[in-house]
Amino acid sequence: MLKFIEEFYYGNLDPQARSTKQNKTVQKQMEILMLNEDYLTENLSGESKKKFLEFSNAWSVVNGESNLDSFIMGFRLGAQFTYDTFVNDEAPFMDLLKE
Q: pLDDT value at position 99?
């Protein structure tokens, strides 16, 4: 991709804008989650509904933070691969042809 950094700066790259159409297993599980959340939200009342919604919201926050952490760690790992590839020339064995 040309001008990768510029596109990233302007927000034209969105790693989250992906679909589960290729992964039928995940798509099915997401459907189950949505159907059950809708069912529980409609059928629970009072304190039970409040606790379920608190659980759902807390899980969303924890899941989002976990995804952010994975993104950051993956980005750092990729940067380290790049650094090691282009900057570091150490290897476990000596190059006998250089001597």
A: 59
Q: What is the mean pLDDT of the chain?
A: 86
- Location of structure tokens 């950094």: 5
Positive/negative CA dihedral, 37, 41, 43, 44: positive
Question: In whole angstroms, what is the distance from residue 94 CA to residue 99 CA?
Answer: 9
Question: pLDDT digits over 28-64, tens only?
Answer: 999 999 999 999 999 999 999 999 999 999 999 999 9
Question: What is the C-alpha to C-alpha distance for residues 12 and 71, in angstroms, rounded to an integer?
Answer: 17
Burial class (CB in 10 A: 0-12, 13-18, 19+), 77: exposed
